[in-house]
Amino acid sequence: MWRYPRPEYWQQFEQILADWAQEQLGDPSADRYGRSGQRQDGIDILARNRRTSGGGGRVELWAIQAKKYDETPLTPAAAQAELDRAMTHSPRPDVFVLATSTPRDTKLQAWAAEPKHPIRVEVWFWDGLVERLLKETWFRRKYIAEQWFRRIPHEIPAAVADFTGRELELADLAHRFESGGSVVVLSGMGGVGKTELALAVAQRAAGECVDGELRVDLCGTDPAHGLSTHEIMSQLVRSLDPLAPSAGSYEEIVAAYRSTLWGRRVTILLDNVYDAAQVEPLLPLPDARIVITSRQRFILPGAHSHEVLGLSQAASAKLLSRVCRRATRIAVEMAQLCGGLPLALRLAATALAERVDLTSAEYLEWLRDERTRREFVEATACLSYRLLTGQAQTVWRTLATFRNPFDSCAAAAVAGQERSTMATHLGILLRHSLLDWDATIRRYRIHELLRIFGDSLRSEEDRASAERRFVLHYQSLLTSMKEQFRLGGTSSEEALRRFDADAAHFFAAGAWLRPGSNEDLATAAMWSVFLDAGVDIFPLRVEPQLLRIWLSEAVDGAHRRREVGIARVHAGNLALVLRDLGEAADAEATQRKCLEESRMSGDLDGITRALGNLAVLALDRGEADRAIELASESAEMERRLDNQKGLAADYNTLANAYRQKGERDRALALFAASLKMKAEIGDIRGRAVTTVGIAQLFMDSNDFERALSLLSQAVFVFRRLGDHRTEDAARNVLCSAWLGYGVGRMLTMEEFTESAEPENCDNVQEVVRRIIPSLRAKADLVVGENAVVAAAMLGDIGGMCEAVGDTAQAIQCYNRSIARARLCGEQRILANGHYNKAIALAGVGRLAQGVAELHVARRLYAKLGLEDVSDVDTMLDYIAKTAPAARSREAPSPGRRRSARPRANDACACGSGKKYKRCCMLRDRQR
After folding, report:
1. Which of 261, 396, 664, 756 places its Cα 20 to 30 Å from the Cα of 369?
2. CB within 8 A of 728, min separation 6: which ones?
């Protein structure tokens, strides 16, 4: 498609019209009328029509007025003024032509057709004039052959009508051009929508590129037939100048290319580029806007590189619905199955539209078949695959083992390559867009449809070999995490973070091992080692129902291999899971069997584990004396074995048993001893569990303020470790403490019953959630001299909101408490409000705001001369250590919550002799 630009200058427009008058009217004397400074009566060209005569053989006199309008349109009123001026000329013209460079306009056409004009009036618009002129040989010879007139190509089509989901990318890329950029490189895997995005970007840029749009397919997916730089330049030159002579040497075509395109404001789409070398000689063209698409990633000087990824689920569903209305109801699952790949989405929606004989459910079943989805990308994936060397092809097929993001270490292990060699292959695969890199999690990923295609190219033997290497790698990794976890302290947290980063792969390894463990003894042995490696982490990350199945299978496998000791270890762990599932009878039977077998074999570790677990089960049944008997025996053996962790656990069991018997002081002393041991060995989770036990002791004596402080700490520790089941249990105890505190301090029993309706609640959290509105309303009613009480109530209500997980409402309550405390001048409540708000903010990752609040609290505590300053400093130090970008999303270790009500620093009940706020529990909380 071609169009011709409007004249750049009005003199140029007049010259074209003068040439037309000479050729078409046959008047060789026709020329531009007059010169600058002379009276012209609104006439630019004056000519006599010698081709035809008017009435009586008189020669018609034509008056032509040229009007070049770029921005302001020509109106009928302005046209009438031009006609009136022409009518003053002597002799009076017979025909008045108003030639304008503006597009066709119905108002001007209607004005010219009005019968009231005294002479014949015509309006010529540029598009129509050019259409007529192009038919004339003289015009083509002078204005095209001599290149005095530029031809404007329009080779870039518009993007598809249902172009969807790239609005932000399109706006960003268009802004790159608007802010002075000249080259954009779009890279990505085949079928991801690079070309459609490029068409949309080029369409946006076309408004500024008045000299046209050019497109060249460089055939980069087939290097054997790809265009050379010489061919690309020749094609671009011919697009702008079809009559340009063919250039022979490379130097000649470069000169012709620079001469033809230099200074032209054109948009150029270079599609399917193979590499940078293919297009780098074409640059720079400062006045051009160049969009490049390629399956390979590369960098060009001064260019903006953008990786095109799949569509989001929402955009995918929208595209499916636009292509096929029937897809609307099943669009979410279709989008997931197609992995957000536009090519696959379009093919899937088109197939659904065509298969009117299939229901939506039948079509989804067909689409779930991997062979079906492989067909969507097979052709385009083959093109990228063939560009790889043989070694790179082998590595890429092997990486189809990974269904989830992976790191380079895992890739090297599964491919059986040295890490340095693997790094080279990964770089090649990235450049060919057969892999993606997620900088957020620092992992590689392979698109699911590409993975299916790569897996289809593997033999069964290759697949089995790669999967075995996969399992061995993650088994080894899990063993290292077990050792790291047992170091305690921050090492335990780091081990859990490492597990979470590759959790999907650990579960995949388990899924691969389990079926084989029932058939093959070697695989069963691997399965046993795998479970033993995860003995500390799996209870925190695997659902109890699934862990029960895993351990049951491991016990059976060990018995088949006649490995009684290993079977006993797995059985003991299974009993703990059965207890968590509420199957106490099966758990006790299993533990008794383990105890019997351990006694027979003389396995002291097995005996102590079984005794300790049986003691806990007895405690669950309310048999405190039996629990004390069993736990004491276990503790004595743990002392001989010098197993601090096991001894601390037995102390916890004994403390809870004495708590059941009402011997509070004895229980508290045992909890304190357990807490000290766990602090020494760095058992973060164990310390939190013990803290919950101590808090329950305080609750028994209605000392809810101390209980709330300790329980808030424990809940945050469980959350930081990702132990959500234990966190939920601790949160429930925390809500019970707030309930006792709230009813005792802020609500009467009648008000509580009316607000909470406890008989209709399923758990304590729901009871607390129901009374919060009543508490807030009651706090709002407290005014005047009781403003201090209101400030304290609002601070306590904030703690309740945090207990039920509503951090936003908690922060709001803290803000109101701070405002009330500031008005009434209560500095202690004000300081506590800022401190508690800081912990709430830090707990949801808003570290900068939390630090600011802590500094405010610190100034207030220092002014009051309170020891709380050291607690603020501890919290600030912890945030400083956890603030780097790599860990900024983690919730920091919590500081201890303050009750909003001021009270003295009482002596710690654990017997340490220190002030409560300075006791060992709080000193060690950050370890």
Report:
1. 396
2. none
